[in-house]
Specification:
two-stranded antiparallel ribbon; 39% helix; 8% strand; HNH_nuc; HNH nuclease domain-containing protein
Length: 451
Amino acid sequence: MATEQALSAELSRFLADKNTQPEDLLALRAFLRARPAYSKPTSYISDIEQRLELLRDIRKKWEKAAVQMQFTAVLWSALMVIPLEQLRDIRDNPFALSIIKSVIPDTTMLLKVFLAKPLSQDELTHAGVSKKRTRSSTYSEARSEAFLDERNLDKSYRDRKESQKCELRDRYCVVTGTANPDICHIFPFTATNTPDRTTSGLYVVYTLWGEQVHQKLSRMLVGDKNIIDTAMNMVALEPLLHRWWGKAMIGFEPIEKIENGIRLRFRWLSKTKLAMKDEVAWDLNPLDCLQPYADEGGNVKIAHSSTYRPIVDGTVIEIIAQDKSAIPSWDLFSLQWDLIRMASLCGAAEANDDDDWESDDDDDDPPQAKVERTTDDLCPDSPFMASPTPVFLPLRSVPVQSQVQSQVQSREPSPTKFSQLRENSPAKSSQHRENSPAKSRTGRVDENNPW
């Protein structure tokens, strides 16, 4: 009752204020009339106590075998989000220690591919790329898709048709209703240039999520029939949310398949005190290392553009497609939900990209002259971040020298079926697309953004 009286008094003052404009009254009415869909969220890490108990059991095996290896935050984060039955199967597997040890490099690889982060020299070698990596070579590698080649004009047109499908389907930001959104990839577009890395990262899916999930995702993300640059892997988001998504500050939790679409729960994620390579305790409780971004005093919040209602944790989003080929992929949104939670837990999105660079005294500056674009466009803060200015590409073929060469690397056998898959996988080839020219786009599709 006291709250209602206080609100009534505030409303009277608001209406009596000489500075109150007609637009303010319309906004207030829209706010009061809106009934946004909401689904009460649970902790985004489920079954914490059961997981910690299973990890303690695995740790006992680890200590008994005197395994000399760090248990890192990135591996811990994966074991915190995989299905509980999968974690239980690992605990009961006689080769549990080999399983855990085998997935560490691939877990890091998968997260870095998902976040479009550069790889260290060891990670490049693990993925089958042997050449020493320098600042300039990796800069060229990361930006190689930005160069237009006339040979790819037909393919570019087909890709533009896919982004138009997404634009037609969503029209506005699916969260805030804002006009002129970015067309974002759920799994990053840059993965089309590095299929070997995606394949390497997906080995951890085979081991920790299971063979069935691995088979589905491999068909979607690797090979000539992948759906990475299709509307099924796209969603419209306003630039600020696009950037926050890349920083693992928000995520999208799939909650239901609906007719011709998907229902998602918008989630606010928390900031971690950890870094990917930190050694952590096996039974570390995630609640002990997570802190809401709002607790830092930052203004991390956003509202719907039409109703002015705040977008809260648990806001329900529906994406409906008239064209069945544009229905968002449940499996890719599910993968996103697992990986974005992992990134939130282990600090992957905040990783310092410069940690793994090799020095290159001969070429310290990026090759800005190769593409007609602004300095801001060349160096975005986040792989998800949308460029605020148009990007103009020269209408001519621009030769790009490949900076990274690939070669097939043999991998140590593992006592699990997983290692047999690793050895026999046809995707572990030396055929790289590191120097593939960009697929030309126009409109709100971000030329500079791997997502």
